[in-house]
Amino acid sequence: MAYSEKVMDHFEHPRNVGEIENPSGVGTVGNAKCGDIMRIYLDIDDNQVIQDVKFKTFGCGAAVATSSMATELVKGKTVEEALGVTNKAVMEALDGLPPVKVHCSLLAEEAIHAALWDYAEKHNLKIEGLEKPKSDIHEDEEEEEEEY
Amino acid sequence: MAYSEKVMDHFEHPRNVGEIENPSGVGTVGNAKCGDIMRIYLDIDDNQVIQDVKFKTFGCGAAVATSSMATELVKGKTVEEALGVTNKAVMEALDGLPPVKVHCSLLAEEAIHAALWDYAEKHNLKIEGLEKPKSDIHEDEEEEEEEY
Amino acid sequence: MGKFIYLDNAATTKTDPKVVEAMLPYFTENYGNPSSVYSFAAANKEVESEQREIIAKSLGAKTNEIYFTAGGSESDNWALKATVEAYADKGNHIITTKIEHHAILHTAQYLESKGIQVTYLDVDENGLVDPEAVRAAIRPETILISVMFANNEIGTIEPIKEIGAIAKENGILFHTDAVQAYMHVPIDVEELHIDMLSASAHKFNGPKGIGFLYIRKGVKIRSFIHGGAQERKRRAGTENVPGIVGMGTAAKLAYATLDERAKYESELRDYLIDRVLKEIPYTRLNGDRVKRLPNNANFSFRFIEGESLLIMLDMKGICTSSGSACTSGSLDPSHVLLAIGLPHEIAHGSLRVSLSEETTKEDIDYLVDELKKIVARIREMSPLYEDFLKKEKVK
Amino acid sequence: MGKFIYLDNAATTKTDPKVVEAMLPYFTENYGNPSSVYSFAAANKEVESEQREIIAKSLGAKTNEIYFTAGGSESDNWALKATVEAYADKGNHIITTKIEHHAILHTAQYLESKGIQVTYLDVDENGLVDPEAVRAAIRPETILISVMFANNEIGTIEPIKEIGAIAKENGILFHTDAVQAYMHVPIDVEELHIDMLSASAHKFNGPKGIGFLYIRKGVKIRSFIHGGAQERKRRAGTENVPGIVGMGTAAKLAYATLDERAKYESELRDYLIDRVLKEIPYTRLNGDRVKRLPNNANFSFRFIEGESLLIMLDMKGICTSSGSACTSGSLDPSHVLLAIGLPHEIAHGSLRVSLSEETTKEDIDYLVDELKKIVARIREMSPLYEDFLKKEKVK
Ligand SMILES: Cc1ncc(COP(=O)(O)O)c(C=O)c1O
Ligand SMILES: Cc1ncc(COP(=O)(O)O)c(C=O)c1O
Predict the structure, then answer these.
(1) pLDDT recorded at residue B31
(2) Is A52 within 8 Å of A43 (Cβ atoms)?
(3) Which residues of this UniProt protein bind pyridoxal 5'-phosphate (chains C, D) (predicted)?
(4) What is the pLDDT of residues C245-283, one digit of tens each?
(5) Would you say the C-alpha torsion D146, D152, D153, D156 has a positive or negative sign?
(6) How many whole angstroms separate alpha carbon C232 and alpha carbon C215?
(7) What's the domain count of chain A?
(8) Which of C110, C392, D62, D232 is the most exposed place for a label (fewest CB within 10 A)?
(9) Helices (H) and strands (E) in chain C, counts
C-alpha cells in the first residue's frame, strides 16, 4: 500500500477515537458498499470553538488515518476555521496518500462538514460557505489511468 | 536435433563419399529448394551385383547419414536385393531419425532407385518392382502435428 | 525483526530452495536456446521433456499434452480465447461461473465484447456450482465449459468430476482453472474428463512467471502467442528453461508429498477454523466446510473492513490477505463473497488465511490470539458496531 | 571436454552471474506477491518500480511507459493484436516488412486471417527497408507501422528514425521489435519517434521468460492477457519478481557498457568478416556491411547446407546457428535470406555468428581456421559443387 509513516502512525495510534455524549453536532458519511463510513462528533462551545472532537470509522488504513488527522486539525479551531480544513490539508498533514486512497481524505473533509451542518441545523445557524454535505463522495472518483 | 549415435557416426565418418567414373548407373534426387540433394553412383557387374557405390549429398546431418548408410546397405548386394532396401531399413540401421528428418531416409531410398533406374535404362533392362523414381519426395511429407 | 508468519500461500509461495538449486545451472552454465542445433543447447530440449513428463504423470496426461506458458493468467486467456476462435463454426456460447478468478472472468467479459455469449453460473452459499445448473445452461451452440477446480478466495472445491461428465456427455470441451488446486488436491484428467487445465508454478513452491496449460490431444486450439515453432508450434517464445526446470522440480517434490501435506494442512486448518469461530463473535466461515482446499480458511468478521485488519496483522508480523491479491487496491468488495450472498459491508471484512506445510500449530495460536485483540480493537472504532450495539440494547 | 566457444548470442545469452545473484533473494526470501497489502510483499512493488525506472531511463522513456511481459514474442503479439483492436474504428491496415521475426510475421498472418490488411514491405539486397516505401504504403486506413530495429539473422539495422518521422508525420502508430537491438545499440524513443518497442531480457544477459513492451503514454491499447490489475491493469498475472529484477539488473549492467561493448564487438566482427571473405571462396556476407549490429556476422557458403556446417562446427566445440534458432528443424530456408534475394540453395547454406563481449580474437581465429576446413570438406561431398566444377572446366 505504500502508506507514509505519518499515515501509519495515525492508523496505529488513532487520535480522538470514540463518541461524545450529547454532541453539538454529529455527521456520518460514506457507505458500507464502498467500504468506508466515517462518523464525527463535535463538541462546540458558545464562541463557536470546537472544544472536543471524536470519530468512529469503518474503513481501510487511510480512512482511519484521515479521520484521525482531520479531528486533530479541527480541534480547538473555530467553526469558520474548521470549514477551511480541506482534504488537501489533511493529505498534506499526513505526507500524502496513495492515489487510490485520495477519496478517504475527501470523505474526512465531508464528515467534518456533515457534523458542522448538523450543528448548524440543531442550533438554527447559517454557516457561511457550508453546503449540505453529500453523504457519499465516491461519485467524484477518477480512475487512476486517465488515458485509457 | 537429437540424432542417434549411429547417425552422428555416419555423419562424421560418412562411408562411400565420392564419384565413380563411368558408373553403371547414377541417380540424383531432391532439390536445392528443399535443402537436400542426393546423388548415388553404382558400379554393377554382369551378375547384377553391386560392386561399388559412392554418393554425394547436399543436405543436413540426416541426409548425409542416410546416404552413407544406404550405400553401405546396398554394397555387395544384387540389384534385386538392393531394391528391397527400404527407407525403414535405413532408419532402423541408424537407430532411428527425428520425425522431421524421416524424409531424408525416403530420399536415400529414392536415390538408390534412381541410380538403379538409370542402370536399367542404360542396359535396356526391366527390373521387376522398380518404378520410375520421383525426383522429389517432399510432396509426401506430413506435418508433425497431425491433429491440428 | 520480530515475528514473521507467512499465511498467504494462496497469493504465492516461497520458492523451495531445492527448486532454486535445480534452476541455477540453467542460467549461467546450460544457458543454450533449446531450439539450437549444437549439442550444448539441444540437451536442454531433453531437460524440458523430462519436466513435461513429470507434470504429465502427475495429472494422468501424456507428455505431449503439456504446454508451458508464463503462468496461470496466460493459460486461462489461451484456453478461452483460442477455444472461441477454433470452434467458431460450432458455436459462440461458453459457460463459466460467477466466482472465477479475474483471469477467467475478465477474459470472458472481453469475449462478450467480441460477441461471444457467456453464461455466468450462480453458486450456492458455500460457493458450490450445481452440476445440474451446468447441464441446464448448455445450448446447441455451447462450445466450452470453464469451471475452476478450487476457488482462490474461499477455497471451495467444485464438483469437477460431475461437471466433466456432463461436458463429455454433451460433446463440449471442459476447461478448469486449477491454479489453486494443482498439487494441493489429486487431479486425474482422465477420471475427471478434463480437456484443458491451467496451472501456475508459484502456487506450489515453484518460481513465478511459469505455468502450463494441459491440452488434451485432439483439442484443436492453436496459438495464443504466435511466432516461433516452440511448444509443438502452439506457444512461441524462447523457452524459459530455468523456469521450466523450476516448475518440474517443484511438481516432483510436491507430488511426492501431496497426501501427507494435505492431511497435515487440513488438520491445522480445521483447528484454526474451530478456534476462530468459537472465540471471535459475529464471525462466519466462507466457503464449504468440507469440500475445501486443505490450506485455505476464509472468515468474515462483521463491522470490520478488511484492509485495516490486514495492516494490523502485518504489524504483528502476520501475512494474510483479504479477497484476492490482485484486487487489493481496488475499492470493490470481492465478487466471490458477493456471489455467495454476503452483503457488501460483510464482504468488505473478510480475511483469507492460507497455510503451507511449514505452518505450525504455534503459528496458528499466535494468529488467533492476535486476531481476537485486533478484531475487538477495530470494532471499538467502528460506527457500524456502535449502531449494532445500540440496536441490541433497544431490543 | 575440449574447446567451447559460444557464438550464438543472438539466439540467447548467458545470464550474467551478477544478474543471478540479484535475483536469488526474490525466490526464497522476498518471495511475496507485490500486490499484497503487508509490508513484506508490498516492498516488492518498490523493487519492481526501480527496475522499470532503469529500463525507462535507458530508452529516454517514462517509468510508467514500461510494461513487463514474458518475453519478446508476447510483446510483439501484444503490440500488434491490441493495436488492431484498439484502433479498429480508425482503420484496418498495418505495414510491416518481409524480414520480421516470426513473432511479428506469424502474428500479422494471423491478423490477416481476421480480415486485417497487411503490407509486407520488400527490403533491398542488404536487408534495408526504404523509408519512402513505408511512406508509399500508407493508406487512410493505416493504423500501425511495425518495422524491426535490427534483423535477428543478418544483423541489418533499419532506418528507424526516418520511419519514425514518417509515422509521426502521418499520425500513425510506430512499433519496433527491438529484441536484437536493445542494449546493443543506443535507442531513444523520443528522438526516434517510437510509440511501442519490444524487448526480451535473455538477449542482453538477463534471464529467459521476461521482457517488456514500451507503450508511449497516450497509446490506447488495452490488455492482451486479461485478469488481475497488475501492470496498471494492462497485463495480468502475478509479477515475475525475480525475472523483473534480473532484467533490470541486466539492463543496468548492459547500459553502462553499451558503447565500449559495441566498439569491441564490432571490431572483432569486422576482423571475422574480413578473414572469412578473403580466405573462403564462393562466400558472401549477408546484411549491410555498415548498418549492422555490432555482434552479428552472417555468411552464405555456396554448395553447402547449413545444418551440416553447424554440426561439424559443434564437433569442434563451436556454437553457431543457421537462420534463426526458432526455425531450425523446419525445412524451409530463411525467409530473411530469400527476401534479400538469395536463391534457395544459397539460402540453405548460411551461417550466423553472433559475438559477445567475452569473445576473443583467438576464438575468431579458431573459428575461421576450422570453418575453412569444414567448408572444404562439405563441398567435397556436395553434388552441387561437383556440378559447378564440371561446368567451370568446360568453360
Ligand atoms: C527480432 C526478434 N523478435 C522477437 C524474438 C522473440 O523473443 P523471445 O524468444 O524472447 O520471445 C526474437 C528472439 O527470439 C528476436 O530475435
Ligand atoms: C484461481 C486462479 N487462477 C489464475 C490465477 C493467475 O495465476 P498467475 O498470477 O500465476 O498468472 C490465480 C492466481 O493469481 C488463481 O488463484
Answers:
(1) 83
(2) yes
(3) 72-73, 152, 180, 200-202, 238
(4) 999 999 999 999 999 999 999 999 999 999 999 999 999
(5) positive
(6) 12
(7) 1
(8) C392
(9) 14, 12
Q: What's A104's domain CATH number? A: 3.90.1010.10
Residues ≥6 apart with Cβ < 8 Å to B66: B10, B87, B90, B91, B94, B97, B104, B105, B107, B108
Question: Quick check: D149 and D158 in contact, CB under 8 A?
Answer: yes
Mean pLDDT of chain C: 95
Which chain D residues in 127-156 lie under 8 Å from chain C, judged by CB atoms?
A: none
Within 8 A by CB and 6+ apart from B135, the residues are: B28, B29, B30, B31, B114
* Nearest Cα to Cα of residue D240 among C47, C327, C247: C247
Residue with cell 568453360: D395
Q: How far apart are CA D63 and CA C363, in angstroms?
A: 40
CA distance C289 to D317: 61
pLDDT tens, residue by residue, D331-342: 678 999 999 999
- Residue C384: which of A11, A14, A37 has the nearest Cβ? A37
User: Which residues on chain D are in Cβ contact (under 8 Å) with C18?
Assistant: none
DSSP letter at A59 equals S
How many residues can be counted in chain A?
A: 148
D321 beta partners: D352
Which subunits count as partners of chain C given 3+ CB pairs below 8 Å?
A, B, D
Mean pLDDT across B81-102:
94
State the cell numbers at D73. 514474442
Question: From the list D305, D329, D383, which residue is nearest B56 (CB)?
Answer: D383
Classified as helix, coil or strand, A119 is helix
Q: Is C171 annotated as a binding residue?
A: no
Residue D272 pLDDT exceeds 50: yes
Mean pLDDT across the stretch A64-82? 96
- Average pLDDT on D204-233 reads 96
Query: What is residue A82's predicted lDDT score, i.e. its pLDDT?
Result: 96
DSSP β-bridge partners for residue A27: A40
Residue with cell 521387376: B128
Is residue B143 predicted with pLDDT exceeding 60?
no
A74 within domain boundaries: yes
Q: Is C73 annotated as a binding residue?
A: yes
Which of B102, B118, B115 is closest to B36 using CA atoms?
B102
Name the closest ligand to CA D154.
1
Q: Does D308 touch chain B (CB under 8 A)?
A: yes
In percent, the amount of chain A with pLDDT more than 70 equals 90
Does residue D373 have a pLDDT over 70? yes
User: pTM, whole model, 2 decimals?
Assistant: 0.94
pLDDT of residue A142: 37
User: What is the overall mean pLDDT for chain D?
Assistant: 95
Whether the CB-CB separation of D151 and D143 falls below 8 Å is answered with no
- DSSP letter string over B7-73? HHHHHHS-TTBS--SS-SEEEEEEEGGGTEEEEEEEEE-TTSBEEEEEEEEES-HHHHHHHHHHHHH
Q: What is residue D308's predicted lDDT score, i.e. its pLDDT?
A: 92
CA–CA dist D356, D354 (Å, integer): 7
Dist. CA D135–CA B48, nearest whole Å? 68
Using one digit for the tens of pLDDT, what is the confidence trace for C324-373? 443 444 467 899 999 999 998 888 889 999 999 999 999 999 999 999 99
SS3 label, residue A54 = strand
Asked if residue C334 lies in contact with residue C347, where contact means CB atoms within 8 angstroms, the answer is: yes
A146 touches D at CB < 8 Å: no
Strands of the A50-58 sheet, one edge to the other: A25-31, A36-44, A50-58
- Say if the Cβ atoms of C233 and B145 lie within 8 Å: yes
pLDDT recorded at residue D233: 93
Confidence class of residue A136 from pLDDT cuts 50, 70 and 90?
Answer: low
Smallest-distance ligand from the CA of D107 = 1
